[in-house]
Amino acid sequence: MFRQWGGDVINMTTVPEVVLAREAGLHYAAIAMPTDYDCWKITEKAVDISMVLETFIRNIEKVQKLLLAAIPEIREYDDCPCTRDIKTAIVTKK
User: Fold this and answer.
1) DSSP alpha helices (H): ranges in 1-94?
2) What is the pLDDT of residues 2-38, one digit of tens each?
3) Percent of the chain beyond pLDDT 90?
4) How far apart are CA 18 and CA 28, in angstroms?
């Protein structure tokens, strides 16, 4: 399906969570931490677990900085469309 759509990368990081959050009218944000690309980029060097863990540790530091900056900016929304969009967001059978 993704190839038919012309996709290069399959986002398995946020599906089905983002769809379910939308159905429930919840605010949702994901932070993905890619560690390697050798599974789909044939020109990339093959990785081993030590390379993945090294990248993961660097990603953790970046995510910690991001969260420390972003969390204080989160506000409560009294009139957010997300809470009303549940009326049109149902994608599963009733």
Assistant:
1) 17-24, 49-70, 81-84, 86-89
2) 678 877 666 666 778 887 887 777 778 888 888 877 6
3) 19
4) 7
Angstrom distances, CA of residue 94 to CA of 49, 72, 89, 90: 44, 38, 12, 8
pLDDT surpasses 90 at 67? yes
* Residue where the block lists tokens 């931490």: 33
Distance set, CA 62 to CA 39, 59, 66 (Å): 23, 5, 6
* Active-site annotation holds for 85: no
Q: Is 38 a known active-site residue?
A: yes
Chain length of the chain: 94
Pull the structure tokens for residue 90: 């149902």
From CA 35, how far away is CA 52, in angstroms rounded?
5
Among 38, 48, 79, 85, the active-site one is 38
Choice among 36, 48, 78, 85 that is catalytic: 36
